[in-house]
Design goal:
With about 475 residues, this protein is α+β, with helices and mostly antiparallel strands. The chain is built from 15 helices and eleven strands. It has helices at about 5-15, 65-75, 85-95, 120-130, 135-155, 155-170, 190-200, 215-230, 275-290, 295-300, 335-350, 355-365, 375-390, 395-405, 410-420, and strands spanning about 25-30, 35-40, 45-55, 95-100, 105-115, 205-215, 250-255, 260-270, 305-315, 320-330, 425-430. The strands form two sheets. It has a six-stranded mixed sheet, with helices on both faces. A five-stranded mixed sheet has the order 7-11-8-10-9, sandwiched between helices. Helix 9 packs across helix 12. It starts with a helix and ends in a 37-residue tail after the last strand.
């Protein structure tokens, strides 16, 4: 990359900031009917584009887990008449950043470019989305890299605990499959599988787009058609059933010779569009939402010194919802740590928060939201997530009122609804005082319409919780 262009792009990415109070979202529709949400900001000559297609790893063919992830890794590895090296060189010369990702429900990506290189950047994105090459050499190189990563993860207690939690909670369901696939499924994925997935999933009907930066609506409209207009109109997606986590009441102990015991715990959550979601979001912060003031942090770390950290998050997916938490402790204190966590969750479900806790949490989740609006990159990611969640273009204006509306009675009722269903626990290491248990897992399919991710969040999913 040209050194000056690289430095300028880095400066632009770091400098562009749109104050939350000044964030105005425009709904832009191209002549071809492609919609995007636009936040115009002319202070820095940078354009950020984020997008996502509904699909993700739940659309992997049977027995070929990791297909979506492999497709995402290859979209910028050569397209049209440019092989992977020529494609990378073309991006490099113009200081264009492009990346793609897959999670359980989506395949998406991001483009970052200086305004002066806008046309070239959008043309490169068009090539990547509409004419990927999937050359055999690049497929094998990316397959080998993913297999190497999976071998490393196979000995990581954090990854083992997380993977086993999802496999148990969603046994026999698409959400139970690792997004990256496994060492058994990856070798069976063919180039035809990759092309089939690309053709089935990347379509205009299941596409959400956000653009932030130095571009106006009239300039953007023809560019949307230029980049996305040649994609198929409709996807060919396999139906996915709504599900709830199984295995509640189980403690699964996985032996691994490591000095610490890693614990994952969780259970059913509350859907993003459920009327109780915002109350659930607030009370989750009180219980274990990552703050040093949370009940779990205070009880586990501050009072007893059992672990360095402990937290839990709400996760919402297209066909399920859950809360999922984790910690790590000395092996000889793992049982005590888990007992404290379960006791605090049970107590919280029975009693709910205090009035003071609720007031403090409401203030925190209201004010901290601005951290998601301080750069073009964060705004673009959040705007895509809001579209995927079907929350409306006026969400920024409605959010504070919905938090303020949460009463203490609401908080106590939702605490019981959210945390009184039992938990599935996975523990990896040589823990003491942790007995494995097996109980009936309950129903697998929920009648609710809607209720992402193992490891760190990838892409836009659930970005409000970051």
């Amino acid at each position: 990359m040209n050194a000056f262009a690289r430095a300028l792009l880095a400066l632009a990415l770091a400098a562009i900031a749109v104050p939350a109070r000044a964030t105005t979202i425009q709904r832009v529709v191209s002549p071809g009917g492609i919609e995007a949400w636009l936040v115009r900001e002319t202070a820095v000559p940078l354009i950020a584009v984020d997008f996502a297609f509904v699909g993700g790893s739940v659309q992997d063919p049977p027995g070929k887990g990791g297909t979506a992830n492999l497709v995402a890794s290859l979209l910028d590895q050569g397209a049209g008449n440019l092989d992977s090296q020529a494609f990378a060189d073309a991006l490099d010369r113009k200081a264009i950043e492009m990346n793609f990702y897959a999670d359980r429900d989506h395949l998406g990506g991001a483009l970052r470019t200086l305004t002066e290189n806008r046309d070239e950047a959008f043309d490169m994105l068009r090539l990547a989305l509409t004419a990927p090459r999937f050359d055999a050499a690049d497929v094998e190189l990316n397959r080998a890299q993913i297999l190497s990563m999976l071998r490393r993860r196979s000995t990581s207690p954090v990854d083992i605990a997380n993977r086993r939690w999802w496999q148990t909670a969603f046994a026999g369901q698409p959400y139970g499959r690792p997004v990256s696939g496994t060492r058994e499924t990856l070798p069976d994925i063919t180039i035809d599988d990759l092309k089939s997935y690309w053709h089935r999933v990347l379509a205009r009907q299941n596409l959400k787009i956000a653009v932030v930066g130095d571009i106006d609506a009239e300039t953007l409209k023809p560019l949307l058609d230029r980049v996305f207009g040649a994609l198929p109109a409709k996807p060919d997606l396999v139906p996915v059933a709504n599900v709830v986590p199984r295995g509640l009441g189980r403690r699964i102990d996985i032996s691994l010779d490591v000095p610490q015991a890693v614990v994952d715990f969780g259970g059913p959550g509350i859907a993003r569009k459920d009327p109780d979601f915002m109350a659930a979001y607030v009370i989750n912060h009180i219980l274990g939402g990552g703050s040093s003031d949370s009940r779990l942090y205070q009880e586990v770390r501050e009072k007893r010194g059992l672990a360095y950290s402990v937290s839990n998050s709400l996760i919402w997916l297209d066909h399920s919802a859950l809360f999922l938490g984790g910690t790590a402790s000395r092996a000889d204190r793992a049982g005590e740590t888990l007992d404290v966590i379960e006791k605090q969750i049970h107590r919280f479900a029975e009693q709910g928060p205090t009035a003071a806790e609720l007031a403090e949490a409401k203030n925190y989740v209201t004010s901290s939201f601005a951290l998601n609006l301080d750069t073009s990159t964060k705004i673009a990611s959040l705007l895509v997530q809001l579209q995927l969640d079907d929350l409306g273009i006026d969400y920024f204006q409605q959010r504070t009122a919905s938090i303020d509306a949460v009463t203490l009675d609401d908080a106590k009722r939702v605490a019981k609804r959210l945390f009184d269903n039992g938990m599935l626990v996975t523990v990896v290491g040589k823990p003491e005082g942790v007995a494995s248990a097996a109980v009936a897992s309950g129903p697998a399919v929920s009648s609710q319409r809607r209720a992402p991710l193992t490891g760190p969040p990838i892409g836009p999913a659930n970005s409000e919780l970051r």
